[in-house]
Amino acid sequence: MCVPSFVIGIAGGTGAGKTTVSRLVTRDLGDSVTRIPLDNYYEDLTHLDFEERQSVNYDHPSAFEWDLLRGHLESLLDGQSVEMPQYDFEVHNRKAERVTVEPTDVIVLEGILALYDEEMNEMMDLRLFVETDADVRILRRIRRDVIDRGRDLEGVIDQYLSTVKPMHEQFIEPSKKHADLIIPEGANSVAVNLLKEKLRAEVDGDAVRSWERGSLEAEIDEKRSLGIDGDG
Ligand SMILES: Nc1ncnc2c1ncn2[C@@H]1O[C@H](COP(=O)(O)OP(=O)(O)O)[C@@H](O)[C@H]1O
Ligand SMILES: Nc1ccn([C@@H]2O[C@H](COP(=O)(O)O)[C@@H](O)[C@H]2O)c(=O)n1
Q1: Which family would the database say this protein is a member of (predicted)?
Q2: How many whole angstroms from 30 Cα to the centroid of ligand 2?
C-alpha cells in the first residue's frame, strides 16, 4: 500500500492561478498524485432552493465543511481511500456522485482558503500562496464564470463587490502569513519548474528533507543559546 508522504496546500485569491499551478506542477506525476480542490468541500446545500443558494457567501470560511475535509486528509495520510464529493458551480451545490480517491505519494489541496484552517496547515509539508493582482484576477474570473460556470456579467460583478472582495481582504489575503513560499503571477515558469523537481524527487524517494519545518528555527535557537548568533 502506498502511503502519501508529502502534502501541499495552494491558496490564493479567486483567479490567481491556483488550479493552473496545481495542474502544471503535478502533470508528470501520473497516479502518484491526488489533487483535492477545496471547492469540492463546499457544504451540501440541498436543503436550500436555487435562489437561496445563489445568495450564499461562498468566500466565507463557514461555507466549507472543514470536518469532512480534515477527516479525508487524515484518512489519505493513514493509507485509506476516501469518497470525495464533487461540486457543480452552475447549481451552487454538490453533485450526487462522489469519486473514490486512493492514497498517493503527493497530495495537493488547492483553494481560496487552503491555508485558512490551522489543523489542515499542520498536516501540510509545503504551503504555497499564489499572488496575482486583483485587476488581473477579476478579469480572469469574469471570463471563466461567464464561460464555464453559467453566470452573467451583472451577477459576477455584484458577487465580487458584495462578498468576494471583502472576504478576500478579511480571510484570504491574511492567510498568506501561513505560506512557506509566495508564487507571483501564478504559473510563473521558474516557480513551476522548481516545484516540479521537488515533487518528482518526493515521488522517486530522492527528496532531501533538509528544509523540514522548524529545523532552521531550532538551529537558530541552538546558536543563540551558545552565544554564536552574531555577525560573522
Ligand atoms: N499565468 C497565467 N497567465 C495567463 N492566464 C492564466 C495564468 N494563470 C491562470 N490563467 C488563466 O486564468 C484563469 C483562472 O486561473 P485558475 O488557475 O483557474 O485560477 P484559480 O484556480 O486561482 O481561480 C484560467 O482561465 C487560466 O487559464
Ligand atoms: N457556488 C459557488 C461556489 C463558489 N463560488 C466562487 O468560487 C470561488 C472559488 O473558486 P476559484 O476557482 O475562483 O478559486 C470563490 O471566490 C467563490 O466566490 C461561486 O461563485 N459559486
Answers
A1: Belongs to the uridine kinase family.
A2: 27
Longest dimension (CA), the chain: 66
Q: Taking a C-beta distance cutoff of 8 angstroms, is the pair 24, 187 a contact?
A: yes
CA of 103 relative to ligand 2 center, distance in Å: 27
pLDDT tens, 100-110? Answer: 999 999 999 99
Q: How many residues make up the chain in this entry?
A: 232
Cα 20 from Cα 8, distance rounded (Å): 15
Q: How many CB atoms lie within 10 A of CB 127?
A: 22
Our answer on whether the CB atom of 121 is closer than 6 Å to any ligand 1 atom is no
Q: Does the annotation place 134 within a ligand binding site?
A: no
pTM of the model: 0.93
| Residue 76, pLDDT score | 96
- Which ligand 2 atom minimizes the distance to the CA of 19? 12
**C-beta 9 within 6 A of ligand 1:** no
From residue 32, how far is each of 68, 74, 126, 151, 202 by CA, in Å? Answer: 23, 18, 17, 35, 10
Ligand (nearest to CA of 131): 1
